[in-house]
Amino acid sequence: LRVAFEEILEIAAKAKLEIVGFSAASALTEEATKLRIWQENGFAADMKWMQRDPLKLADPLHLLPEAKSVISVAVAYDRRMLPSQKAGYGRVARYAWGKDYHLVLKSRIEDFAKLLSAEFGEFKSRSFTDAVPLLERAFAKNAGLGFIGKNTLLIKPKLGSFTLLAELISDLEIENLPIQKKLSGCGTCTKCIKACPTNAIKSAYVLDANKCISYLSIEKRGNLSEEERGMLGQWIFGCDICQDVCPYNHSQLKQQFEAQIPEFGYEFGVGPWLSLERVCSIANNQEFKSNFKDSPVIRAKREGLIRNAICVAVNTGYGELKPSLEKLSLDSSELVRDYASWGLGRLS
Ligand code: B12
Ligand code: SF4
Ligand code: SF4
Q: What secondary structure letter does DSSP report for 181?
């Protein structure tokens, strides 16, 4: 099925998707090589899904053999000024302030696909956001949505990097594609590399996940070393430091919430700060799931989030958490018990 890109843009606008670009559904061999080097350096840490064959991660045909195009979409999330820090709270990265994007953005893309098929007839497609074995940023960059910054994030001039990516891979052949404008990049700036408190950005464009607070607080299961516990600082879930310092994001911080997807506003989720007491009072996995079923925070699991909360309490000297830690030292989870005892020791 052949369709002109202008027609797709019109339908995307109806689906309330404004930042949309197109690229061919073919393997990105150069990117696959960079990914292989990254894997060989051990920078994927324990993320099994990032240790897959690089040629697969760089090739959308593995996801849809009939694919002809990748429609990439970027959506801004909550860019309001950060409300000031409260004692006894851990900081949450912006992308996780509101409702879970895996739910909201995925269904937006699916609605978009339905509108397309209502207009053009049936076609083969699959939609994804984040949870996909594909180099989403590389495809978004090739689709003209932005450039890759030295912090490895996709940056769109005039919008910054506080965006989430999604894509519709389909057998639509997209015609009349405009010639892409050459985007400016980072230039001589190295602010993100210098600001990263754990030196996780090894060199421009290369991130070692083992050292990234986002990895440690969200993806890493089980125990953290003594050093890693300190590395979390005040972050209970994710980290925004290498984006907060980026000049492309500065003019983007707003007083008012103006996002395409209202559910990304912090009123729809856990917000910028999570109470350490609240996290430590979650009695079991079921209660954890019902508390966070609509939030990206669910990814950390109960044990992980309590572990992080105790680290934040220790890192910020929040002794008021001790009564909760007393209770947790009798918890059914060994990891939680260990962290509770460690926290009690450190806060005494
Ligand atoms: C694994 C993963 C992580 C890991 C590893 C991050 C990383 N940089 O690789 C961890 C858990 C640390 C992580 C953290 C975050 N993540 Co994440 N993550 C992913 C995931 C699943 C895969 C990323 C990936 O492919 N990594 C592998 C490396 C090799 O890829 P890469 O860094 O893009 O490498 C390319 C370039 O850097 C370049 N390159 C590599 N080496 C070299 C060398 C030179 C010299 C040059 C020029 C280029 C170059 O080529 C590579 C191949 O294209 C994607 C979703 C997806 N399926 O793509 C989301 C994704 C990248 N994450 C996202 C987000 C929001 C985050 C966080 C901001 C969340 C937070 N606030 O805590 C942080 C940001 C940390 C950071 N600075 O990157 C968004 C980013 C949106 C955007 N605007 O870019 C994505 C796209 C999810 C989504 N659908 O929106 N994430
Ligand atoms: S997310 Fe935080 S820890 Fe990870 S690279 Fe950026 S500043 Fe460093
Ligand atoms: S802080 Fe500077 S170097 Fe880092 S991504 Fe932004 S512009 Fe690029």
A: P
Q: Are 186 and 245 in contact (CB under 8 A)?
A: no
Q: What is the pLDDT of residue 193?
A: 98
Q: Rounded to whole angstroms, how far apart are CA atoms 66 and 26? A: 11
Q: Which residues contact 219 (CB under 8 A, 6 or more apart)?
A: 45, 46, 47, 209, 299
Apex 237 CA angle, 231 and 238, nearest 5: 75
CA-249 nearest atom, ligand 3: 6
Q: How confident is the model at residue 145, as a pLDDT?
A: 96
What pTM value is reported for the model?
0.97
CA distance 310 to 317: 10
Tell me how far the alpha carbon of residue 85 lies from the centroid of ligand 2, in angstroms.
Answer: 19
Q: How many CB atoms lie within 10 A of CB 137?
A: 19
Distance between CA atoms of residues 73 and 64, nearest Å: 18
Closest ligand to C-alpha of residue 234 is 2
pLDDT band for 256, please (50, 70, 90 cuts): confident
